[in-house]
Design goal:
Length: 516
């Protein structure tokens, strides 16, 4: 197929193949199929999809025909190797001559196309591919650098998927030679992005795209260079990623804090994002403490924001306030509130192994809880408790029955051998104590004290000290809310019996003052 004379014919066929009219479309498709094994056809396709002045749909179709015909092209080699090898060499050179495709979708298809050719020809017949890519990712032009990174990612992904022993050895040699460069490239783009996001530069989003593409390429090289996984987990790489995430969440928090009405369009998506990662399985294995704190703070600030609370009458409320309130009502439905409450209590309120170890080593220090000032903004435990209080206060009618149901499942002393059960009871009692004022009309605390709590104070087993401590704290929370004076003698007696327990002395001292 002579390129000069054939270009017009092939271009016309491709144009007709993009038609919505089947009368025009079908003959064009049949003609293109007949040309799939003709010498010169793929050279024409290359010229068409690299010509940025042509219609995008035509160029897109040309790329697809080229990509889908690669296997046929290689089977054609066996029939006429001299001609085919010449054309193949020309095609390979043309594919990597310029990384300047302006249309994202076409650029992606070209990257996949090059990767398919690389799977068959690299490195033996195409040794210049990787060096060309590595040089192209160094250029300063954003478009060329991005397209080269995109192609590099698809090539490494495809080569890493080969399973024959000889191919795996070749890829291992390739990875060893370019791995350090790939890591330094990713590190450079990460540093650039972090600097730009801190200084508010408009190009930050472009740097983020390059950072992600660089990282994707490294992931596939890591099949043979496992050290990168350790660097992600153990050193500054992970720190940089976490810092990036925290910066993004901080932008949301600051925006919400200073411009609550402008934030209204983001309320729904922000709540979906935060609740998904913190209160569903979506966050398992990928979240970290600082991120969880930021997400909880985001939820709290939306729930408690005065700008989103309507006045007593609709006429007195701003339209923006009513809109925000409507979004909140829609999002915080019964299933969502129930899941948040249960997850807060049964997961985030559970004492951690580190906290239990601290109790063993320093009971007094453990009793001095970090709940003052702005600690909820930075520390997980006070953050979870403040979020629980705010949500419970806002939606007490919905959540009170949920919490009471959790209490009812814990009737009677818990088996001292059931360590999980003890932790769960401690967490539920913590929730009841925190929500004491909200539960005034829902809990007969005097009856609960007589029927269960008093008995739990008398369980002397060493493993039950967790519950004894929590019950003492719980009583301290409820004394100023609802506790009959005639019950105090029984409480005094229980306290005297517990004074010999050094783990509880500090806790007991906290309820003495209200009793006096």
């Amino acid at each position: 197929m002579d390129i000069t004379s054939a270009s017009t014919i092939v271009l016309q066929a491709l144009t007709q193949a993009t038609s919505q009219d089947t009368v025009v479309l079908k003959p064009a498709e049949e003609q293109l199929k007949q040309w799939e094994t003709h010498p010169g056809f793929y050279s024409v396709l290359l010229n068409i999809f690299t010509n940025h002045t042509l219609d995008v749909n035509v160029r897109w179709l040309a790329v697809l025909y080229f990509k889908n015909g690669i296997d046929l092209l290689h089977s054609f080699v066996a029939d006429d190797s001299a001609l085919a090898e010449d054309e193949k060499a020309s095609l390979r050179a043309g594919l990597i001559a310029n990384f300047n495709e302006p249309v994202n979708q076409i650029a992606t298809q070209i990257g996949v196309l090059i990767a398919k050719v690389a799977r068959l020809d690299c490195p033996r017949q195409w040794p210049e591919l990787i060096p060309t890519l590595l040089e192209s990712v160094k250029v300063q032009d954003y478009l060329r650098q991005h397209r080269a990174l995109l192609t590099f990612y698809h090539v490494t992904k495809t080569l890493a998927s080969k399973r024959l022993a000889v191919d795996k050895r070749l890829f291992q040699d390739l990875a060893s030679g370019i791995y350090n460069f790939a890591c330094s490239l990713w590190n450079h783009h990460t540093d650039t992005f972090l600097h730009q996001i801190c200084t508010g530069e408009a190009d930050a989003i472009k740097s983020l795209e390059r950072t992600l593409l660089s990282l994707k390429g490294i992931v596939h090289l890591t099949n043979t260079e496992i050290g990168f996984l350790h660097s992600i987990a153990e050193n500054t790489c992970r720190e940089k990623l976490e810092k990036t995430i925290i910066l993004f969440t901080k932008v949301l928090l600051d925006f919400l804090d200073y411009h609550p009405f402008s934030f209204i369009t983001l309320i729904q998506r922000s709540l979906e994002f935060a609740v998904s990662y913190v209160f569903t399985s979506a966050g398992e294995g990928v979240t970290f403490e600082r991120f969880i704190v930021q997400c909880m703070n985001l939820i709290k600030m939306i729930v408690k924001n005065d700008a989103y609370k309507p006045a007593k009458t609709t006429e007195e409320s701003k339209p923006e306030t009513l809109e925000a309130h409507k979004i909140k009502i829609s999002f915080f439905n019964y299933p969502t509130l129930t899941e948040i409450c249960r997850r807060l209590v049964s997961h985030y309120f559970l004492l951690t192994p580190e906290e239990l170890a601290m109790w063993e080593e320093d009971p007094e220090g453990f009793a001095v809880e970090e709940t003052g000032g702005d600690s909820w903004k930075y520390s997980l435990r006070p953050c979870t408790e403040v979020l629980f209080l705010d949500i419970f206060h806002e939606y007490s009618q919905t959540l009170a029955p949920v919490l009471l149901e959790m209490v009812q499942t814990l009737h009677g002393p818990t088996n001292v051998e059931d360590s999980v059960g003890l932790l769960v009871k401690d967490a539920v009692y913590n929730a009841i104590g925190l929500a004491a004022y909200e539960l005034f009309d829902n809990v007969d605390f005097d009856q609960w004290f007589k029927s269960q709590l008093l008995a739990e104070l008398h369980v002397s087993h060493i493993r039950y000290k967790l519950i004894r401590r929590r019950v003492i704290w719980l009583i301290g929370q409820w004394i100023s809310v609802k506790f009959k004076s005639e019950l105090r003698p029984m409480l005094y007696e229980a306290i005297l019996n517990l004074m010999q327990d050094q783990d509880l002395v500090t806790c007991i001292s906290k309820i003495i003052t209200p009793l006096q």
